[in-house]
Amino acid sequence: MSRPALGRPAVVRSATGRSSLSPAELLRQAILLLFGLLALFPLYFSVVNSFKNPVQYASNLLNVPAALHPENYAVAWTQIAGPMVNSLLITLASVLFTLMFAALSAYAFALMDFPGRHLLFALVFALLLIPDFLTLIPLYLQIKALTLPSNYLAIILPTVAAGQAFSILVLRTAFEGIPRGILEAARIDGAGHLQTLLRVVLPISIPALVSVAIIRLVPVWNDYLLPSLVLDEAHRTLPMALVAFQGGGSATTSTPNYGALMASYVLSALPLLVLFSFLMRSYIQGLTGGAVKD
Amino acid sequence: MRANASPSDRPDPNRSDPAVQAVELQPYVRPRINFVQRLWRARLAYLFLLPSLLLTGWFSYVPAYTALTRAFTDWDGLNPPNFTGLENFQRAVTDPVMQEAGGHSAVWVALGLLLAVVPPLLVAELIYHLRGQKRQYFYRTLFVVPIVIPSLVLLLVWSNFYRSDGLINQVLGALHLSSLQHGWLSNPGTALYSLIFLGFPYIDAFYLLLLYAGLQGIPKEVTEAARLDGASGLRRVFSIDLPLLAPQLRLIALLAIIGNVQYFISPLVLTAGGPGNSTTVPALLMYQTATKFGEYGYAMAIAVLLFLVVVALTALSQWLSRGGAAQS
User: Fold this and answer.
1) What is the distance between the alpha carbons of residues B28 and B9, in angstroms, rounded to a whole number?
2) Residue of higher predicted confidence among A125 and A294
3) Per-residue CA distances from A256 to A54, B129, B307 (Å)
4) Given B42, B115, B187, B269, which is the most exposed site by the fewest CB atoms within 10 A?
5) Superfamily of domain A72-256
6) What percentage of chain B carries pLDDT values higher than 70?
């Protein structure tokens, strides 16, 4: 990387006319573009192959087929429509309740004074030290023994619990940053704690709430282990359905319907694709901003 | 203005206004109030905390307690467990399959650490040195987009690449390198490495953004001073960026180690630990011991051992990185 500006200390890099394409800059961009496209290659692979019939698939794995076979998507949809709905429902409910309960706790920790505050906060913080694999099996047996009104709750409740520590920590920091004057004004107007939370604290904290929601949403959407243990056939999620549809990895000798398989992969990426086309900016800011640092 | 509200209606007395409070309290108690009253006054705070505490108590603390205590029993999920002392642990450390699995896990953790640190660091440096905010933002976004691919889909697509008639062998064939063709996941010699190196180019969005934010946080005076001293390119990376990124690198190393010690989804879904035991890792053994064979007590002992390994590796990496930082 050549850096010719040795004798010009005061010049701020990007603000000058030199922001044109030097060879080094071109090289950097070429490498980045290559890596970026490679990272997206599985998506490209799924999309082009989802439109192929078995003969086209066998002859070339990389081209865009001349004759498209969208009927693969109809086959895929019959396999994953139900699980897609289940996954959407479970993910939305889990994230919503995670936020709701975490906001209440974060408010108490940030803005209320009560005996045992430090002890209880330490208990919440210590949750981060309990790894998932330690609790997986006991949790599975515990949930199996529980009679729940709906099988959905068998995954929603532990997922909400698993999200509490992280969400409470981030929201508490956000709530503590709210100017005291605003909170005092609300109190003078006669607002109780619940009203202050609903009318003042939450509206101000929408960026933090959105960050926490999308950061939590991705692992919940991808979760496979616990759902595969506690959910029954009718309530199974998308990852479970995809594994079942594939029919057990590459070890199997039978040749699955690749076109439909790839179509199911594309369909299962769509919800997050739509979401991130709206919320990419706040996701990036949530991760790079103060939310998750340290 | 509810000056006439009785103090017991206020669970959280406004401490910034002690005068008002004292006047209001006087009819009931003398300046000091006892502990029970303080608890009662704070009841709204406890009510706010109740859902979180109940859920985490029942779905995190109770199962963790179960795991830690039942590791010392012959728990089978049906009969009341009997205390067996360290028997499960003894069995775990002497079991040859477990030792083999531990070796696989060590390789996975070591290589996984490299894959977690090097590619994101390289990309973060490249993006950071691009000219112009817009360009930097574009590439940052480009590397976050793959997050929309569900992690299971990534595994399944890659298992497709690894098939004997899959993409990798086709590419090797086209390059006249047929001698390198394998059934990547069905060959015991390559299966483990195929799983570890699954997911090229290994650029985790979170790690990348963390490192990029760290680079942005390096004070301009430091980089300018380095430039005056003639440190550029790789020298700058090694003498300035890496030491100043130590907190971020430490966090990534920690997350990668903990994540890889407990990871077993790809062996579970793609190879079931095989062929033979060639892709078996301790976490997978723990899972299979419990769900296939119902030996919950033994499974919990494996889980507790893994937990101890995680704690030890965490302490070790903290200690090493602190030592490294002190040297430079």
Assistant:
1) 13
2) A125
3) 9, 46, 39
4) B187
5) MetI-like (1.10.3720.10)
6) 88
Distance CA A199, CA A192 (A): 10
Domain boundaries, chain B: 1-41, 89-327
- Calculate the CA dihedral of residues A142, A144, A148, A152 and round it to 10 degrees: 110
B positions 194-213 inside 8 Å of A (CB): 200-201, 203, 205-206, 209-210, 212-213
Listed by number, the residues of chain B in 98-137 with a beta carbon closer than 8 Å to a beta carbon of chain A are 119, 123, 126-127, 129-133, 135
Tokens of A220: 């919940």
**Chain B contact present for A8, CB below 8 A:** no
pLDDT digits (tens, 9 = 90+) for A157-215: 999 999 999 999 999 999 999 998 999 999 898 888 999 999 999 999 998 999 999 98
Measured between its terminal Cα atoms, the distance across chain A in Å is: 31
Best of A250, A254, A273, A275 to substitute, by most chain B Cβ atoms within 10 angstroms, is: A250
Going by C-beta distance under 8 Å and a sequence separation of 6 or more, which residues neighbour residue B237? B125
* Residue whose tokens read 């062996």: B267
Sign of CA dihedral B182, B256, A133, A170: negative
What is the signed CA dihedral for A95, A96, A98, A101, rounded to 10 degrees?
A: 180
Is B328 near chain A, with CB under 8 Å? no
Please report, rounded to a whole number, the percentage of residues in chain A having pLDDT higher than 90. Answer: 61
Give dist(CA A198, CA A213) in Å, integer.
Answer: 17
Distance CA B263, CA B106 (A): 12
Q: What's the rounded Cα separation, in Å, for the pair A50 and A265?
A: 9
ipTM entry: 0.85
CATH code of the domain occupying B89-327: 1.10.3720.10
Q: Which residues contact B68 (CB under 8 A, 6 or more apart)?
A: A134, B300, B304
pLDDT of residue B324: 54
Least confidently predicted of A69-83, A98-112, A230-244, B28-42: B28-42
Domain ranges of chain A: 72-256
Using the Cβ of A269 and the Cβ atoms of chain B, whether some distance falls under 8 Å is answered with yes
Q: What is the DSSP letter of A191?
A: -
- The fraction of chain A above a pLDDT of 70, given in percent, is 88
